[in-house]
């Protein structure tokens, strides 16, 4: 049979408790309740960290953007797809993160592929990636022509060794996530920035989970150091969709001229770009959203039974390491019966024997939700 690996591979996933399937979310209301197959759950798996999705002012801005610019950009940015809404959003982001230039992409995945492929022009480029970097960074790096080395997670010493052993290359890039998606830990941004400088390397941070949440105005990793290149998706804390990349004028010009992901792809919806401006305005001024995440996260870690292995972090993401994938699935199923939606994260998303519950605590949760969550987890795991 043609392509008979398809059935074989899927069956193998099932046998390993790694099978994935889509669930349709039929939620219509605002907040952190989700409705799946007609049943309502408290959602602790969302990346809407600041609770901005469905915000009335952002929705209103979306409507205004649609009225002014249309929903669709109708072509690539380089043809006629680049609208005033895009330009204005880029300018807002530059000001927010204090960067010279910003470029919009249709997704964070595409932005990562674009960046690594552009900088990995040939073997003279050397990339140093944290081992726990997102799949899109890894794909981008390995699909480029650069030499790729991976350093142990958040291990500055290992990175230093790799850098000092390397043959001298004029084009070095150190890359990491700003806050890691699967354990919520923050990268050692200041050390990475210093190491980049002393090695004449550039620092690239993927701030998918930092933007909005980290920093006094939600500016992410750039709150701690001047990061050469930053990428962030707009589909998580920002509550819209698409992604941006900030960089120097030269790199901006280079990407516009050479990045296939940018050139051969339709520009993001100008209505969404317009809505995103409103979202960023709210992120900068509504400090209570970040304070709420911290307050509820502290409460959560205090309420968990002491034998539960919680990775403690300053972000919205809190991982409870279970280990075995069957057990992680069983705990997740038990919680579902109690009205809590908490996805079990299994290999290959995380390393073997590190299956976990990835709890996200958002600004639209409340104390009662957290108390209930902790009670149910304590019972399900103990
Ligand atoms: C979600 C995510 C992405 C992808 O962003 P999208 O806009 O969803 O494509 C990239 N990197 C990291 C670390 C992510 O968590």
From TrEMBL:
<dbReference type="GO" id="GO:0009102">
    <property type="term" value="P:biotin biosynthetic process"/>
</dbReference>
<dbReference type="InterPro" id="IPR001917">
    <property type="entry name" value="Aminotrans_II_pyridoxalP_BS"/>
</dbReference>
<dbReference type="InterPro" id="IPR015424">
    <property type="entry name" value="PyrdxlP-dep_Trfase"/>
</dbReference>
<comment type="pathway">
    <text>Cofactor biosynthesis; biotin biosynthesis.</text>
</comment>
<dbReference type="InterPro" id="IPR015422">
    <property type="entry name" value="PyrdxlP-dep_Trfase_small"/>
</dbReference>
<dbReference type="InterPro" id="IPR015421">
    <property type="entry name" value="PyrdxlP-dep_Trfase_major"/>
</dbReference>
<keyword id="KW-0808">Transferase</keyword>
<dbReference type="InterPro" id="IPR004839">
    <property type="entry name" value="Aminotransferase_I/II_large"/>
</dbReference>
<comment type="subunit">
    <text>Homodimer.</text>
</comment>
<comment type="similarity">
    <text>Belongs to the class-II pyridoxal-phosphate-dependent aminotransferase family. BioF subfamily.</text>
</comment>
<feature type="domain" description="Aminotransferase class I/classII large">
    <location>
        <begin position="41"/>
        <end position="376"/>
    </location>
</feature>
<dbReference type="InterPro" id="IPR050087">
    <property type="entry name" value="AON_synthase_class-II"/>
</dbReference>
<dbReference type="Pfam" id="PF00155">
    <property type="entry name" value="Aminotran_1_2"/>
</dbReference>
<protein>
    <recommendedName>
        <fullName>8-amino-7-oxononanoate synthase</fullName>
        <ecNumber>2.3.1.47</ecNumber>
    </recommendedName>
</protein>
<keyword id="KW-0093">Biotin biosynthesis</keyword>
<dbReference type="GO" id="GO:0030170">
    <property type="term" value="F:pyridoxal phosphate binding"/>
</dbReference>
<dbReference type="GO" id="GO:0008710">
    <property type="term" value="F:8-amino-7-oxononanoate synthase activity"/>
</dbReference>
<keyword id="KW-0663">Pyridoxal phosphate</keyword>
